[in-house]
Amino acid sequence: MSEPDTPKDPVGLGLRTGDVPLARVGSVRAGPGPMEPYLLLDEEGRVVESVSAWVRYMVVGDHSPRTIRSYCYAALTWFRVLWQLDVGWERATEAETAALVGWLRVAPNTQRRRQAGAPAVNLKTGKPNLGLGYSAATINLTLAAVRGFYDFHAHWARGPVVNPVPESPARRRALAHRSPLEPRQAYRRGAYRQRAHSRAPRSIPDAMWDEFFAQMPSDRDRALVACYVSSGARAEELLGAQIEDVDWAGQRMSVVSKGSRERRLVPLSPEAMTWLSRYLRIFDDASSGPLWRTIRGEPRPLTYSAARRVLQRANGRLGTNWTLHDLRHTAAMRMVSSGVLTLPEVQVVLGHADLRTTSIYTTPRIEEVIDKVHEHYARPAPPRPRFASGYAAEDIAIIFGDAGE
């Protein structure tokens, strides 16, 4: 068997090196019902039945719609590679996986073209700027989705005999029957998996918050960021709220948790409630329906992309790179450092399943650490003694006189 990077396949090798562009054919569309929330269409607009069967399996297995959507887009990238290489999905090998990962490593991400030429780190926020390509997390998610797709079909004796996405046996052994009280064992990454770096959460310092909030052009945008930074809700959780989910008397809101998909209550600050009431006055009917809507033209539910664009416009004026998730980090850091809430209480507000996830917010902000270091440098140096210890002061005075003082 030839190696995955053999030159016998010039198209596959061209994808890996970026010399051959990947044709943007096919699409992911909304499905006909809850059993098929999403469909993968091929280059001629036909439904890819092998993916639809996998989607129905995930629905029955109680996967969330967001997970199914992301897996369908991962399958779309995989099938685009197969279509360009003229390889049927049931005949895919590790060579096609190498072509997929190679293309993802060198291809530009179309959603990040606005940041071309930006420095590696934003000097105002201290946050790394997103690169122009696909992140390691995106590549690993794509590999996990493709492997799950072939595991599903292998269970029904369909597809290739060997899964085209290799698995790490060391990982399987390290995670099998592991006691939660024991430390997590280290293991080697599987083939083609990328090295993913875990970064400390970044929150907006109080000194920069007023400047950032002043860039919000409307009451809706002010209400949106104020609700984010006071509730600690995730982006999709808050955007999915309905008007009737707001408890005005209790200053709280009901949201659907991302992980468990159960309803939980999150707090809202008095300032957030004030901006929320001002924003809702512009609608004739503000008793029911989506809480967050467009304010130009016919009101429509506010999408994640539109909410993200609100922050992008503010970032463009300030030269920052804050994100919607940074607002959740900001809320968490404020709660942890308040001295009023305990860490388990912050865990309940944020909806974390594990207290260790909440504990990452006990890490001090880098801005605070740098300020303290600068204070340390600014302190005058203590006077250093001219003579070693052990000599009597009167002896030094006799020998050196006043110069020894």
Summarize the structure.
Helices cover 44% and strands 6% of the residues.
How would you describe this structure in keywords?
405 residues, three-stranded antiparallel sheet, globular, mainly alpha
Structure annotation, total helices:
16
Judging from the principal axes of the Cα atoms, what is the shape? globular
Beta percentage is 5-15%
Average pLDDT, to the nearest integer? Answer: 86
Instruction: Encode the helix/strand succession as letters.
Output: HEEHHHHHHHHEEEHHHHHHH
| Spans of at least 5 consecutive residues with low confidence | none
Rg on CA atoms, Å: 28 Å
Number of strands: 5
Find the structural class using helix and strand composition: mainly alpha
What percent of the residues sit in helical stretches (DSSP H or I)?
Answer: 40-55%
Q: Report strand order across the widest sheet.
A: 3-4-5
End-to-end Cα distance, whole Å, is 86 Å
Major sheet size, sense and barrel closure: 3 strands, antiparallel
